[in-house]
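Key result, reporting period 2: structure in, sequence out.
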């Protein structure tokens, strides 16, 4: 399906705004050492019925993203079109983890999905993989998450085993509807969600702060 046919289901203005926001975000996360090399992937819901996501294309340096580095994918994870006419659809492909994004985006509360590969998320996910979760409690920063109003709170962050079988992993994630606002993949990284890009970014920042504390204190 070409851009002209697909665009009837979403606003090009919405796409352009999301691209600009994710370009800035990629640069920020790169300089924080959370999205180095070509790791990480980001997406934003741009249409609900049917479902469409704006997503970073595979193999792109997140510190130097341009509008030509984004594609629009459908519910099955297939590319429908480029974010702009500059995208070379003969070579572009979505992230290998696109099915994780589409599964998460089916939740109407999720409008943006951000995936980072930080040192701290890698460490804590490896240390706690046998338990299947990382428990974080007692920190003021927990109040950055929706519904948390006190530091006297305990959060369990689910840890999934790392695998190259993304479809199988996506199926497991789909079975856990309460997985928001985020989860870890063992020795891989963090996925965080939000109603919009700003909320998802807030969740990433809070998680990364807490993971660094947990990693540095040897938990």
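The corresponding designed sequence is given below.
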């Amino acid at each position: 399906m070409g851009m002209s046919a697909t665009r009837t289901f979403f606003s090009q203005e919405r796409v352009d705004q999301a691209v600009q926001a994710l370009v800035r975000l990629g640069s920020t996360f790169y300089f924080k050492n959370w999205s180095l090399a070509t790791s990480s992937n980001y997406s934003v819901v741009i249409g609900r019925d049917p479902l469409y996501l704006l997503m970073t294309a595979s193999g792109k340096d997140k510190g130097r993203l341009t509008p030509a580095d984004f594609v629009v994918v459908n519910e099955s994870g297939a590319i429908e079109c480029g974010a702009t006419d500059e995208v070379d659809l003969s070579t572009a492909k979505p992230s290998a983890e696109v099915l994780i994004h589409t599964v998460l985006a089916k939740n109407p509360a999720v409008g943006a999905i951000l995936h980072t590969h930080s040192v701290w998320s890698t460490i804590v996910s490896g240390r706690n993989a046998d338990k299947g979760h990382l428990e974080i409690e007692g920190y003021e920063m927990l109040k950055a998450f929706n519904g948390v109003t006190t530091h006297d709170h305990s959060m369990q962050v689910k840890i999934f085993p790392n695998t190259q079988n993304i479809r199988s992993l996506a199926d497991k994630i789909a079975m856990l509807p309460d997985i928001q606002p985020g989860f870890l993949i063992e020795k891989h990284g963090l996925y965080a969600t939000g109603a919009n890009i700003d909320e998802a970014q807030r969740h990433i920042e809070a998680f990364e702060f807490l993971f660094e504390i947990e990693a540095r204190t040897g938990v």
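The beta strands are 41-48, 51-56, 70-74, 79-82, 112-116, 133-137, 154-160, 182-185, 189-194. The first helix runs from residue 3 to 6. This case is discussed further under Risks and Mitigation.
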